[in-house]
Amino acid sequence: MHSEDEGGDEAEDEDDGEAEQFPEIDTRSDSEDENENENGSAADAEEDEDVEDDEDDEEEEDESEVDTEDDDLRIYPKPKTVISDITGQPKRVYPEIEADYDSDSSTEDTPNRVGNIPMHWYDDLPHVGYDVNGKKVLRPARGDELDKFLETVEDPSAWTSAFDKNTQRDKPLTEEELDLIRRLQENENPDSAYDPYEPTIEWFTGKGKEEVMPLSGAPEPKRRWVPSKWEKQKIMKIVRAIRQGRIIPNKPKTASTQPQFYNIWNDEPSNVAPPLPAPKPRLPTNAESYNPPEEYLPTEEERKQWEGTDKEDRERDFLPQKYGALRLVPAYDQFIQERFSRQLDLYLAPRVQRVKLQIDPNSLIPKLPSPSSLKPFPVYKSLHVSHDAHRVRALSVSPDGAWAVSGDENGNVGLWEVMVGKEVKRWKFPGKVGAVEWCPRTDVSFFVVAIEEHLHFIVPPNLPTPVLVATQALLAPATLPPAPATPSPVKWVSTAAAASSSDLPILTLSLPSSSGLPKQIVWHRKGDYLSTVSSGEGQGGVWIHQVSRRHSQAPFRKVKGSIQLVLFHPTKPHFFVATQRYVRMYNLAEQKLLKTLTPGIRWISCMDVHPSGDHLIVGGYDRKLCWFDLELSDKPYKILRYHTRALRAVHFHPTYPLFASSSDDGSIQVFHARVYNDLMTNPLIVPLKILRGHTVKEGLGVLQVRWCPRQPWLVSAGADGEVAVWCS
Amino acid sequence: MASTSGETSHPVVFTTQTAYPLPSQKFMIPTSWRRYQLSQLVNKALSLPKPIPFDFLVRGEILRGTLAEWCAEKSIGEEETLEIEYFESVMPPQKMSSLPHEDWVSSVSCQLSGRFFLTACYDGNVRAFDYSQKLLHSASVHAAPLTSVCVVPSSSPSSELLIASASHDLTARLTTLTLPANSSEPASSKTVASLHLHTAPLASVAANGTGTHLLTASWDGLIGVWDTSISEEDEAPAEEPTERKKRRRVEEDASRPKRKAPLAVLKSHTARVSKAVFDTNGEQAYSCGFDSTVRVWDVENGVCTNTVAASSKPFLDLALTPSGTSALACSTDRTVSQYDFRAAATHLAAPTASLAHPATPACVAVSPAAGEHQLVTGAYDGAVRLWDLRSTKGAVTSFRAWEATLKKGGKVLSVDWARGVVGVGGEGGVEIWRVGESEQAVHH
């Protein structure tokens, strides 16, 4: 670079060459003068640095050279600092500008005077403009590309020349211009006169420049020389803390100054769920556009409906609106409200990780043994006995399980073999048959039929002689037992044993008139007492008859509610009485109320006690079946609701762990019910089978179910006049 | 010999237990063949003078469709050799006659040497019919419903028959029935003895092959063994309350049936005994009951020698196969089970074959003439089914009794099968059907 500069200089300024003192630095006439002036005014009170600068210039080559060059390469004339004669202060004196030959651009020979116009206007013309005299300045001849190339090779100043459009020729750049370009290239200040390293001027410091007078006349404050009490307090506080050991100064370094490392994977992973990310807002749909398609715009009705509904009930919280341009869309008027409710949401309903229960729904179903492992139980209808489409409400199976007796509402009572279904005898009574029941004794054999206000005791045919004799002796004794002290309104009328046959009742009980149809007969397990419940009013309709003493008594003088059912406890002298909503348990020996069971049924329809005597099932017209553990609670142990219509009958099997319930929906459901002697084990109730086969007639389905003793067979009587036997 | 071109054929080996064996060689049978073609093949191969229809058992199943259909159903490859057993096919049952009764018929017997039928009715009468549906005699033996009737075979041929009947009135009775050879003379009957043991209605009565002994089964769980000789004196005392009056009458009335006492009482059943029968030589008795057991008795000593204890199968009826080695018992769980007494005692509880019915099978009968494998059962749905024990999946054939008279199908309470004739007794009376053997067998 430097050498190039030299080369350029050589070619250019020949006239300045002789005046130069420093061959490396090209100087112009101005700087020449300056140097001369400087040198000339060496006598002036110049500072040492300046002199040194010059000396530096001479000695050093690179950096200070540049500086001096900067000084030298000024476009403007450099001022001269002289001591003013008047003030005695240094002053700058600029040299006078001589209008010499190349000091003014106007003296330059600029032949083309077209001014600053686009030169391509002259592209098609032979001249490039006009000179000061109005003569055409002809386009200088330009060589072809080869000439250009040769020119660049031959002419050393070709690379520092630029094409001048005005004259349409290459013009070599001046020294200043090249310097300017160089400065710009090197990111320097383009002004070569600028000195970034100007010597500082000491205005206030230094000898003889000290400030003698203070700036303020205020007296010295006390705090400048009195020790601070506040600081003392603070320090004493720290001192006390150090003494008490709360602050340990120079805390000893614990183990070592070595950096402590720990395994970041050492700890168990945290169980705490990571903070939940906020739920993502729903993506906007077309309806939320500022310019939705027409089909999203609400009709007038929809708009009215939207405005009519409450804010909470609206399906969406805005109405689509159409704007021609986005700039026409107004500010969102719900913005504040929405932000506020969002804040409410955030702090009133904080996000929590909802622990989703991963439970297999099948595991919630109690583990029950499979029905096939609980065989035998009835599964199919083996045979049926027809009652000519009269409703069969009364049904009973003999204690040996061989015979069944059924009574319909037409007054027919049929005796038939359970396994064949052949009716061997039929009795016709006036009025409806309310109930039939076999005597549970095995040494005698008879059954009781309840007709309007009468109880008929009937001996079945074909009895072995000892049984027949015992039965006749029981029901029609030769010598009547002594009459009870208090006469009873119930009349006991027997036919003589000799004249009796199975065609006619051997004994008839006449209940007091207007007591209504007895709808239930229950026997005590020993077969001496039987109890009847009549539908009529008065005295609760409950009678307890004792066969051996031929005596009847009403156990209740006054009963709350109308009595629906009664039941003898199989082992204890207890007596269950069911009213519409409650089951009361009385001790007949002590004549007191033991407990009241509340099944929660609106109207009790049927009831049976387990052969062990510890469990009671109660069915209701409101489709519920309640299982009571009598030793457990007055509340049901289990409430089963599986029938679609009212329950009509329930019955426990005397020996097998089975019970059955029948309903007005025409179905019979068979359950496995195993009870344990262990008080800790709950009864196991397993639904086994739904037996369908009875038709529902006039809203009534299966009216009575009874088990066959000794066999897992079920006998059911329906409103359709069919009595069916279900076998395993 | 059965080679046809273009059709797929299947290798088959024929076996049989009939008197018409084929040579034991492999046949290539076209798979499109049905029973008819196979039967023709056997007939032609043996060049039988009179064509005999055969039925074919493929792996214990009677072939109903084509062989190809059977193979496709069972997914049997074409290469596999099939063993096909054939037997003389059963002709479709034909109704011969109908004997209407006013009450239900609890028992029917066809054992009377091809001439008569005996029926026991719930009205207490034993009736005898001949083959032309003519009522020969009606004897009012019991006042109570009858449950069972049987003919006591006699060694000496005579016109007098001894008939045993069991009833709900706790007795069985022996009745002599005189049926004259020509039908112009009236038949007569006389009750000669009443058997007093049971305290519950009787379920069945059966005689042994020589007619010397009787078995009665009752609801009280007892089985009585009786001889059939009629003594002059009452063996059993009359019941207490009517003693005096009757004794006076006895002396006057010599024709009063004699009261007989049992030779032995077989006690082991814990519930109702529904049937007790002798085996063919009369030494052993078989009984079944509601306590789900089938028991084998040594009659001589009166002890139970073998017991099949099934689980929850109250048995309703029992029949012995002609060879006497196994028993067929109907139970209320809608199966008829075969128990083979030759098996070890430990395996006795499991039946060797089990025939599933859609309704309660109430009665079962076998015929000595029909072979070892066939039986008929009557069920409460009114259907009488013919089974082959080699094909237990379904009945060979079935027919419905009283289809015309009873709409819903009455219960069949009794079937008896002898010499190609099945007597069906039940709710609708009695019907006689020709089942099984050819017409020759009926006539001779």
From TrEMBL, chain A:
Residues 1-23, 44-72, 97-107 have a biased composition (Acidic residues). Residues 1-115, 267-316 are annotated as: Disordered. Residues 272-282 have a biased composition (Pro residues). Residues 122-378 form the BOP1 N-terminal domain. SUPFAM superfamilies: WD40 repeat-like. Signal peptide: none annotated. WD repeats lie at residues 385-426, 640-681, 702-728. It is found in: Nucleus, Nucleolus; Nucleus, Nucleoplasm. Residues 300-316 have a biased composition (Basic and acidic residues). GO terms for cellular component: nucleoplasm; PeBoW complex; preribosome, large subunit precursor. GO terms for biological process: maturation of 5.8S rRNA from tricistronic rRNA transcript (SSU-rRNA, 5.8S rRNA, LSU-rRNA); maturation of LSU-rRNA from tricistronic rRNA transcript (SSU-rRNA, 5.8S rRNA, LSU-rRNA). It comes from the Eukaryota. InterPro entries: BOP1/Erb1 (IPR028598), BOP1_N_dom (IPR012953), WD40/YVTN_repeat-like_dom_sf (IPR015943), WD40_repeat_CS (IPR019775), WD40_repeat_dom_sf (IPR036322), WD40_rpt (IPR001680). Keywords: Nucleus, Repeat, Ribosome biogenesis, rRNA processing, WD repeat. The keyword rRNA processing applies. GO terms for molecular function: ribonucleoprotein complex binding. Belongs to the WD repeat BOP1/ERB1 family. Component of the NOP7 complex, which is required for maturation of the 25S and 5.8S ribosomal RNAs and formation of the 60S ribosome. Component of the NOP7 complex, composed of ERB1, NOP7 and YTM1. Within the NOP7 complex ERB1 appears to interact directly with NOP7 and YTM1. The NOP7 complex also associates with the 66S pre-ribosome. This is Ribosome biogenesis protein ERB1. It comes from Fomitopsis schrenkii.
From TrEMBL, chain B:
It is found in: Nucleus, Nucleolus; Nucleus, Nucleoplasm. PROSITE patterns: WD_REPEATS_1, WD_REPEATS_2, WD_REPEATS_REGION. Coiled coil: none annotated. The keyword Repeat applies. Residues 230-262 are annotated as: Disordered. Component of the NOP7 complex, composed of ERB1, NOP7 and YTM1. Within the NOP7 complex ERB1 appears to interact directly with NOP7 and YTM1. The NOP7 complex also associates with the 66S pre-ribosome. Belongs to the WD repeat WDR12/YTM1 family. Component of the NOP7 complex, which is required for maturation of the 25S and 5.8S ribosomal RNAs and formation of the 60S ribosome. This is Ribosome biogenesis protein YTM1. It comes from Fomitopsis schrenkii. The lineage of its organism: Eukaryota, Fungi, Dikarya, Basidiomycota, Agaricomycotina.
